[in-house]
Amino acid sequence: MNPLKIFMTFDRRIWLFGFALIVAASFGVSAARASDAGLAQTPPMGWNSWNCFHLDISDEIIRAEAAALVKSGMKNAGYEYVVIDGGWEGWHDTNGVFHSDPKKFPDMKALCDYVHSLGLKIGIHTSPGPTTCAGHEASYGHEKQDAETFAQWGIDFVKYDWCSGDKVYRPDQMQEVYKFFSDDLKATGRPILYSLCQYGIQDVWKWGASVGGQMWRTTGDISDNYDSVMLHGLAQNGLEKYAGSGHWNDPDMLEIGNGKLNEDECRAQMSLWCLLAAPLFAGNDLTQMRPNMLAILTNPEAIAIDQDPAGVQGHCARQEGPTEIWTKSLAGGSTAIGIFNLNPHPMTITADFRQLDLPRTVQIRDLWRHQDLGKFHKTFTVTLPRHGSVLLKVARN
Description:
Blueprint: H1 11-32, E1 45-48, H2 50-53, H3 59-71, H4 74-77, E2 81-84, E3 89-92, E4 98-100, H5 108-117, E5 121-126, H6 143-153, E6 157-161, H7 174-187, E7 193-197, E8 215-217, H8 226-234, E9 248-250, H9 263-275, E10 280-282, H10 291-297, H11 300-306, E11 315-320, E12 323-329, E13 335-341, E14 347-352, E15 361-366, E16 371-377, E17 379-384, E18 389-396
Parallel strand pairs: 1-2, 1-10, 2-5, 5-6, 6-7, 7-8, 8-9
Antiparallel strand pairs: 3-4, 11-12, 12-13, 13-18, 14-17, 15-16, 15-18
């Protein structure tokens, strides 16, 4: 087994996009994001309905998951967005107003109000194409009005999924299409986090921020198995220069608690996502969550690595066979280190401080065991089970 297997064209809008490019070139990406100040200053955290429920969602399910997010303690741990993915859609009426499926979501405004009453924020999914990935009605031809409808409902987060976009747009129109809807969202006056979902096509990490995105998918869809999870996470290496406060690479959602990853594999995903400064979106049924899965999702020391105010995405510092060591610089001068065994057998792995650009002597804390391990000179050695990992915080002595 190879362990590294896991290794439209509207004239007005064209003119506006060209003008926007000139502005962006003149003032830089920071100016392009000026109106989004305050959104996603650290990687967004929340829950998304897709991984567990797919299209089988309803008002009742979303309310129950939102309540569980609070009751479980996940809200207090930093998870704040409840995102309704595909399956809510109804139709646009003769006036162009988007309606949710009345059998499943009879009153979307009331649902948004309920989620807000819990101290949470709410998100929704749509596509620039005529249909969503599941064939339901999407936003093509109604973009501005849909943005206004979402704002009127109280939506705080929009996942804009390419889906059928290639049926109506040329590949070279992708960036302008995403910029158009960003402008439509901003025009509502409501702060709405904009999540680009187009699977890393056209190196989205290079332009996602310039079209208004606060996060963008860099991969295809994740699956509930170790190979898929690690493929998505490890593939982020090299993209670190495109991430930072207000704009984040998104390797897709967490599979923790969905049943096919064991505890070691779940910790590995959480460790890697936190080192990546990735958005943390749980995708399991929170109403049926086992205590050990909750403990992984709410580990405050791991989350602190993800939410570190320096906003640095980690990178792979050493790869040897089926082992990888990742490092992430933290505010205050400390370093987070993740050591991963991709092998289906236990392995002993040694981290050489010189190779990791660390001083000869350091203090190390194990963030899963919540234990100070003491002072180490030159190297740190650990034996990990199959698919195991360790997440460390290293301070200069």
